[in-house]
Amino acid sequence: MTSQGLRASLEGIRAAKTALTDKTLSQHKLAIALGITRQPVSKFFAGEPVSRSCFVQICQHLGLSWQKIAGLPEDRISELTATSHGNNRDLNILVQEIRQKRQDKIQDQCGNLQILDIAQAIPLVDIYTIVYVLEKITSQRWLEMGDLLKEFCFESGFKRLEKDQISQKLSGLEAVLLYSKLMILGKPGSGKTTFLKYLAVECNKGKLQPNLVAIFISLKDFAEDFKDNSDFSLLKYISQEFLSCGIEAESTLSLLIEGKMLILLDGLDEVQMDEVNEINKEIRRFCQTYYKNKFVISCRIAAQKYKFPGFTEIEIADFDMQQAEVFVKNWFVAVAHESRENGEAIGNLFIHQLNLPENKQLRELAVTPILLHLICLFFQEKSEFTFKPAKLYEQALNILLSRWDEMKGIQRHSVDCNLNLANTKKLLAQIAAITFEQGNYFFDEEIIQPLIVQYLTKDNEYCHGSSKLLNQQFQDSAKLMKLLEVDHGVLVERSQEIYSFSHLALQEYLTAKNIVLNHQYQSINQLVNHITDKRWKNVFLLTVSMLPDAEAMLRLMKQKIDFLVAHDQKIQDFLLWLYQKSNSVTTQYKPGAIRAFYIVCVGRSLEVFLKGSNFPQHQVFCHSSSYGLERAMIGNLAFSPELAIDEFLTSTFACAGELEFACNYILNDAIVFDYAHALNIAFDKALNLVVEPKFKQFIHNLKKQLPNAQSNHHKFRKWWIEHGKFWNERFRELLVKYRNICHDWQFSKQQIELLQEYYIANKLLINCLNTANNIKPAIRQDLEERLLLANTKIKK
Ligand SMILES: Nc1ncnc2c1ncn2[C@@H]1O[C@H](COP(=O)(O)OP(=O)(O)O)[C@@H](O)[C@H]1O
Ligand SMILES: [Mg+2]
Fold first, then answer.
1. Whose CA, among 409, 567, 572, 706, lies 20 to 30 Å from 475?
2. Three-class SS of residue 8?
3. Closest-lying ligand 1 atom to the alpha carbon of residue 369
4. Among 651, 654, 643, 543, which Cα is nearest to 598's?
């Protein structure tokens, strides 16, 4: 051994030559395989000194012990181990030097992000949001359908932005420190590339793993070079990359042998299908040879079934609300070029609006960074969420199905199936519509495949030019299924072999799209049959917003609504009363809105009388505080004296009902007193507004009959139990006589449920009317005028 390196002994050279022949290699091929020049290899076989790292490398490749080839006696081997400490010091100096040389390259390669629909590259540090990972891969869970359904809640979709239980998550950086071989899985646009770039930048700055040198490799680029040149290898790729920064191959090799690199292999899913096996093999070989280094590979979650030995798999977690907030604030500064102060303010506004109940579908999309970016783009236009959701969903689909790939120059395997973007959407729309109709948010592979076969058979014109596809429908349906999952991430595997759409919002959108694509009486009619099912609300709104002319649909909705209550005489009588009562008040509002107002008033009194029965209170058709229907028609109901009187009187009557319930069923006197107090307040407000002298006098007298609750709770309760029922009846008589309100309708539980459905369906109709495109004023007026009318009045 010399201070410069090691030389092979005569015995060693002989052994090496034999190994070379055994492996059918030449010196030239060996140099290529090692990614080094021919010179050190020739020197090795000539018994001349070569660098220690090169020497070890050659021996390892030939499967020989380097110590033996160098002919080192045992004591020299331990001496060598001792000097390795000194070598370590040298290595660390080398790491620092190389990092410096790599600085510009890393910055150029990883320091900026090319963002969808944004012309300029954005500095990574300005936009980066901390990444969390899950140590349990969702698709590898063995949950049954029932378990998934238990986790699922229609109201919140598969996963909406929420304050997450951080405890289940690990920060991405921690995971990198924890595991030396990491496979990061994630959905399209979930931030895999961004995270790997961030690791490269941070490592090169010395902030992360300061004793390592980072290299970021796009596997798509590598595979392309690999294809052109069969001698190509990861080692060669890295050597060339380092050489371009002025780093000699020998130094590169030393780093690799000593495990001084952080090797980031991005986008395994972006490698073309026919090259995947070769690339997998090369990665495996490379990782095994240079096992001392740290490796991070990224891949789409569904794409990789091959497991690299020794790798730990983790999954990028969806964004939670805190991450979204940081992202959005950074976005408005870095991407929209607002000042920090403005950016934060817009970000706060964004998050506030995103949290409103009506934006729950957007919250579901916002868990995916690329889709959150899209929502920011839409929001930027108007500083509010007033855009048409259907447009956003269409864009989101386009991103997942093609645009995100196109931007990166990736051709997915879809081309094999001859399925273009429009047809992919049609197929997805059919799958969505059928599964949504069946109420299936999760489905087995077996459910989807026949749908795909059916699609291929029925719509074979979509697959023209591919007769092979038609002949092999069954095999190809499996292939298509994978494609929809792997290539696009629109379908995801939630547990082993159980699928769902990536976002419930997209399933709803695609269901609506399917209706619009088959825009026929039958499909609209089928939709309208779901008018009372709140699960379908979004599908209605999305459909109506996409139909070029929604008049027929709105009219059909109106017909179904009227039909709902057409055969119930009591409800028809009630609607007649509603008509008469609403016509009797003088306001400037539309009659339909006034009817909506009074139906809510009735709902309140019903609510009270349902107390004590088993009927859940929240199911009363229009809960006290919601005046949703007339608000949808005329905005907030402004002050109108007549309406205000009836509202306060109804409240008072409702309070009396509450009191009745409390006195009879609640033991605690203090609670009874609270109700009595509420009744007093409501009564005074109503009295203040009433002008009709006789009526005012009567109800004034009625109020005077009430004993003072404050002085003696117990006595008050006793009085009420004895006289309350009668008092309430008297109050009702007065309200009926002087105001024509608070009738005792004596609805059955079924009738109340029906009225509730009727109210919700009407609200949906008005929301659809407000959402539809190009509705002629005359049609709007017609529908509004006929809202909440009894059959006899409609037909007139
Ligand atoms: N951690 C993050 N911080 C900020 N933006 C992110 C982050 N992750 C992803 N993004 C945004 O989402 C886009 C898609 O992310 P990317 O990493 O390319 O996804 P993937 O590689 O998983 O398909 C990025 O261009 C960026 O706009
Ligand atoms: Mg990527």
1. 409
2. coil
3. 12
4. 643
d(CA 135, CA 314): 5
Mean pLDDT score of the chain, rounded to an integer? 84
Task: For a ligand 1 pocket test, name from 109, 117, 194 the mutation site with the most ligand atoms within 8 angstroms of its C-beta.
Answer: 194
**pLDDT-derived band at 637, boundaries 50, 70, 90:** low
Q: Which residues pair with 184 in a beta bridge?
A: 298, 314
Atom of ligand 1 nearest to the CA of 115: 25
Give the residue, out of 128, 370, 488, with the most ligand 1 atoms within 8 A of its beta carbon, to mutate for a pocket test.
Answer: 370
Which one-letter DSSP state was computed for residue 2? Answer: B
How far apart CA 249 and CA 237 sit, in angstroms, is 11
- Of the ranges 87-91, 235-239, 399-403, 558-562, which one carries the lowest mean pLDDT score? 87-91
In CATH terms, is domain 105-140+165-316 a member of 3.40.50.300?
Answer: yes
In this prediction, residue 138 carries a pLDDT of 67
Closest atom of ligand 1 relative to the 370 alpha carbon: 12
Q: Which residues contact 373 (CB under 8 A, 6 or more apart)?
A: 115, 116, 331, 335
| CB-defined site of ligand 1, < 6 Å | 113, 115, 127-129, 131, 186, 188-194, 327, 369-370, 373
Sign of CA dihedral 708, 710, 711, 715: positive
Domain locations along the chain: 10-72, 105-140+165-316, 321-404, 413-543, 563-785
Nearest alpha carbon, ligand 1 atom 4? 128
Least confident piece of the model among 32-36, 77-81, 346-350: 77-81
Q: Are 651 and 684 in contact (CB under 8 A)?
A: no
CATH homologous superfamily of 10-72 = lambda repressor-like DNA-binding domains (1.10.260.40)
Q: Mention every residue, 6+ apart, whose C-beta is less than 8 A from residue 404.
A: 116, 188, 189, 370
Q: What is the DSSP letter of 210?
A: T
**Cβ(253)–Cβ(36) below 8 Å:** yes
Ligand 2 ion: Cβ-proximal residues, 5 Å cutoff: 192-193, 267
Given this model, what pLDDT does residue 77 score?
64
> Bridge partners of 266?
218
The pLDDT value given to residue 162: 44
Residue of the nearest CA to atom 14 in ligand 1? 189
H and E: helices and strands count for the chain: 38, 12
| Nearest alpha carbon, ligand 1 atom 1 | 129
Q: Cα of 136 to ligand 2 centre, how many Å?
A: 21
Q: Measured between alpha carbons, how far is residue 204 from residues 174, 209, 212, 277, 604 in Å?
A: 17, 9, 8, 31, 66
Which residue did the predictor score with more confidence, 72 or 70?
A: 70
Exposure string over 466-475, b if 16+ CB within 10 A, otherwise e: beebeeebee
> How many angstroms is it from 403 CA to the middle of ligand 2?
13
Tell me the H-state helices in 460-568: 467-471, 473-482, 504-517, 521-528, 537-546, 551-564
How far away, in angstroms, is 578 Cα from ligand 2 center?
60
- Would you place residue 167 in the very low, low, confident or very high pLDDT band (cuts 50, 70, 90)? low
**Of ligand 1's atoms, which has the minimum distance to the CA of residue 127?**
4
Residue 48, pLDDT > 80, answer yes
Burial 519-530 (b: 16+ CB within 10 A, else e): eeeebbeebbeb
Give, in degrees to the nearest 5, the angle at Cα 126 between 123 and 129. 115
Q: How far apart are CA 111 and CA 479, in angstroms?
A: 37
Smallest CA separation from ligand 1 atom 25, residue:
115
Q: Ligand 1 centre from 370 Cα, in Å? A: 6
Closest CA to ligand 1's atom 12: 370
